[in-house]
Design the sequence.
């Protein structure tokens, strides 16, 4: 498993806004993450697209977003988010709504989530986080 994490995983990866921001800034860590996982399908959630479109560089972001497949936030994702939210409330571990929706999208679509903000997502059962 450790070798798999170092080499990247094959499968479906949903990338968080912090990774996208790194890519738009040509940051090595973000670019290496994608290179190591070149055999994987790469997605973003529609919620991540929303977060990115709030940025001041909206015109540059729109072009970048047009090249990445987006996973919508629909009924299946909403049900997943509701379940996660109830479990986190019982644990006393609140979470931002955007992060909840991004995690639910990843889970509902059988994706591993790639994020530099692991602490925001570590309490969520059923969510696979990409090791890098």
Sequence:
């Amino acid at each position: 498993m450790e070798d798999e994490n170092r080499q990247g995983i094959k499968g479906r990866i949903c990338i968080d806004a912090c990774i996208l921001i790194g890519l738009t800034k040509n940051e090595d860590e973000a670019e290496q993450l994608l290179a190591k996982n070149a055999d994987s399908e790469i997605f973003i959630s529609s919620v991540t697209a929303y977060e990115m479109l709030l940025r001041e560089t909206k015109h540059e972001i729109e072009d970048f977003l047009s090249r990445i497949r987006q996973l919508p936030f629909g009924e299946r994702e909403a049900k997943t988010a509701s379940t996660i939210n109830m479990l986190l409330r019982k644990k006393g571990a609140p979470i931002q709504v955007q992060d909840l929706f991004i995690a639910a999208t990843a889970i509902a679509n059988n994706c591993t989530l790639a994020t530099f903000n692991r602490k925001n997502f570590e309490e969520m059962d059923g969510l696979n986080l990409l090791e890098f």
